[in-house]
Amino acid sequence: MGGPAGSWRRLSDSEGEETASDPQPPLLDHQGAHWKNAVGFWLLGLCNNFSYVVMLSAAHDILSHEKVPGNQSHVDPGPTPTPLNGSSRFDCNSVSTAPSGSRQWALCCWELHPGRLFSFSGDQLVCYFFLLTSPEPQDPGGEEEAEIAAQQPLIGTTASGSKPGSSSGLSLQERWTVFKSLVQYIIPLVLVYFAEYFINQGLFELLFFRNTSLSHAQQYRWYQMLYQAGVFASRSSLHCCRIRYTWALAVLQCLNLAILLADVWFSYLPSIYLVFLIILYEGLLGGAAYVNTFHNIALETSDEHREFAMAAACISDTLGISLSGLLALPLHDFLCHLS
Q1: Residue 82 burial by CB count (10 A; 0-12/13-18/19+): exposed, middle or buried?
Q2: Where is region (Disordered) located (predicted)?
């Protein structure tokens, strides 16, 4: 009686089992692409900041070098430096380690040299073309997403001819609205960068301890190394620690500025190792503020606004660094002329 039906049912069940066991897109390929992208973007960020970081770290040596025969630069490594400004209680260079004047123009022209462009753009082209993978094959979308997309109107908010997620179709009013929503992230990041680069450009050279075996140039290098180590660690720690309220980081960084500025004036910190810890902490705050700001913006903006929002927020670090340089130069000159 039920033979044919039973056979048909068993056949259907077996076909269902075979269908269910069909091979799915390999998970290992997706994970491999994820790690390739992670390494690629990490290397791109490293190449992007490398020359800038080296220039800042060597600023004291560049400004205090002495010319010797043969047109070679010589930096005195001795532990007892000679103040360049004899009337000052500080051991100062004639100018601050902040970028300034003709030196900055010379550095900009040097960066535009074809050989340098090729060398740095080449540590970046390899990463872009051989490590990064296109997002389209990695996000094909499932049946549920396809059904949802099919139910959406053909004419939506996205401008005609522009890709989804592109900001090219945003009106001026939309851009202004998005920018106003970013103020809560832009202002804290501006303050963080203002405070830390005010420390780095205006105070590092003045935080000089004479009761140590380290020369002035060596102390400056340690300050820069510890700061950059803190930035490096915190920028790579997003998966371990995420911070929603970046205002707190701005307040803490401004507190660092106040502590170190007071030490320059009153010399109350007992040991250079305490300054080392503060500077490492400064770098941790700076890197954390940067990476968490952009992570929060990426999470809280819509697809069509995200590209513009990320680009607009990039003014924060540039504005903070520029303002700090404008104030660090006159402050450095003022302090160096104190008797």
Answers
A1: exposed
A2: 1-29
